[in-house]
Amino acid sequence: MKNASQTPTIDDVARLAGVSTATVSRCLNEPEKVLEATRLKVREVVNELGYAPNFGAQALATNRTNIVGAIIPTMDNAIFARGLQAFQETLATDGVTLLVSSSNYKPASELEQIRVLAGRGVDGLLLIGRERPPKTYSFLRERGIPFVLAWSIDRQSGNTHVGFDNQAAASNITEKVLEFGHRRIAMISAEREGNDRAADRVAGAFQCLAAAGIAASDIDLVECAYTLDAGASAFSQLMGASKRPTAIICGNDVLAAGALGEALRRGIDVPGEVSIVGFDDIDLARATAPQLTTVHVPHRRMGSAAAKLLLAMRKGAAKPRSIVFDTELVMRGSLDRPPAD
Amino acid sequence: MKNASQTPTIDDVARLAGVSTATVSRCLNEPEKVLEATRLKVREVVNELGYAPNFGAQALATNRTNIVGAIIPTMDNAIFARGLQAFQETLATDGVTLLVSSSNYKPASELEQIRVLAGRGVDGLLLIGRERPPKTYSFLRERGIPFVLAWSIDRQSGNTHVGFDNQAAASNITEKVLEFGHRRIAMISAEREGNDRAADRVAGAFQCLAAAGIAASDIDLVECAYTLDAGASAFSQLMGASKRPTAIICGNDVLAAGALGEALRRGIDVPGEVSIVGFDDIDLARATAPQLTTVHVPHRRMGSAAAKLLLAMRKGAAKPRSIVFDTELVMRGSLDRPPAD
DNA sequence: ATCTCCTGTGTAAGCGCTTACATTAGCCAT
DNA sequence: ATGGCTAATGTAAGCGCTTACACAGGAGAT
Questions:
Q1: If you ran DSSP here, which 8-state letter would residue B217 be given?
Q2: Of A145, A232, A274, B67, which one has the greatest count of Cβ atoms within 10 A?
Q3: Measuring CA to CA, which residue among A80, A168, A92 is closest to residue A126?
Q4: Which nucleotide is nearest to B13 (CA to C1')?
């Protein structure tokens, strides 16, 4: 019985092209093993019918889905959105599609998502950061799912990662702040719980300050949500202190932009009265006035590199080398010398 | 032969639990149809083995994947990233996962992606905008894939959509610009080709201006890429004209922020010398100085609503009602009266 | 002319589930 | 006791692909 008006199957193609299903399959997957004439004929029928292989069947037969998963804290954050876009584009060049899920910075939720994606048979997984419960890692190992960590580096564990040294970069920009002559320095950071990037950045800054003889107890640190508004109120809080800082190091550009906006609203001159620096160099950093001095992170390149690694692992490369990207300090207008008085 | 140390299959569970595979399957999918004692025994074995159904096999047998796809122009755009995040969160509440792909505003590429996702057996599809080649729609129909259009409305075709009236909203903000007394008005828009949102916004503005007696030929329109830099150069171009506009209506906040930044750099006062308005109300709109007067669009609610519709369609609802969201004008600092001279 | 070897193609056995249908057992009404 | 139901479970036929293996035919070596 012909299955007219149904989704065509490989059998339909084989019948109409006058070949076996094996040949059709080969035409699609290993065209070089098939005579040109046959190939052309098959292609013609495929087009005519609008045939596309059934996914479930293919997955079942090959034990491969050509789907890679990514679990990120949230897409509603330019750095991940941008990296993910590049990640997806790179996967697409190899015919691999992207399944995304979000954890909202919750390790428990992340494990849950990993379970779901594993259930969907992903060929590999992109995970953000290095810190997670051992349980999560053991699940990944048991299932034998290749994964790469991104946005952080992970020297201890030996897991494959594609990232940059948040701590060193933070230390670096802090160094620059010191060079400008600042001594009263405050910090605004995103929640560090479940976010090793934020934690590393704070650690990097503190370490640099300690080396310069500034004790941790002398540094005001406000930890808050990852939003403009939170950055704004953190700024208010810091400037309400008895001894105002002359520079505020922010854990990311969103917080920095929020702080900057609040400064403007309160008529506090940046960088005249207080300097503000960010981290990430997202678009936002160039839209503010003054523009943000910040740390440039190659988010797109990271996403793309992570995809390439996963693609390689899928083809057998057991444990490709990790990749560490350099970051770059970009000097713009929001950092200058402290006020003279 | 026992397949020790392999991924356990339903057969393993059946054997160890002393029941048939059918019973195991029922325990997992329709537990109420199975005796409690049996159910318990099976569950025990499932846990012990860490059994999880093979995705491909399940998809093949049921012809369902619990995967929904989304094809958006790019994730590297806050409006889509934000909407997509909400979309994914809502899908997740029903155990559905999200496959994403991007079209880069290219209709041909979009069809290609649709083909790929269809090949992945998605249960439904989220598409951005209404305009696409008939070929694309006919493919969707042939395959019987439920889909919803978002970010636009689509009155003619009767396709299910979740969006807002770009044209009316643009007309609305233009009206407000006129109210402030502006007569020399220019526009910066993203490329309209393959982007009906951009086209609608331009059309809405032009229509409103026409109604006020301002001819299209008197309106400078610059069409450019969707970036800060492009917005900046478009601004330069407009301000280099013999008769400078007193107000610039931008098709989105990114372009508006780009223009605003360039104004600042050139020492052109906004809104003193020229007013600038945006569209979308993304975070960026509040990070600039002055903040952008713009049109607020409920991106998250749209994403979430689209997910709910798709979820309903998956459960049989043939063609749920479309949803049209209201937009809201938000007055901030970048729009004021034209200069007196 | 015969034997090998290759190349291109066909045959058919799975891959691991779901589900229509068959079977069995227990219950109640007669 | 018998028949008819119902509820719980089992049997086995797919679902649509891939791929190991078998096979045929032609080219080249002998």
A1: G
A2: A274
A3: A80
A4: C16
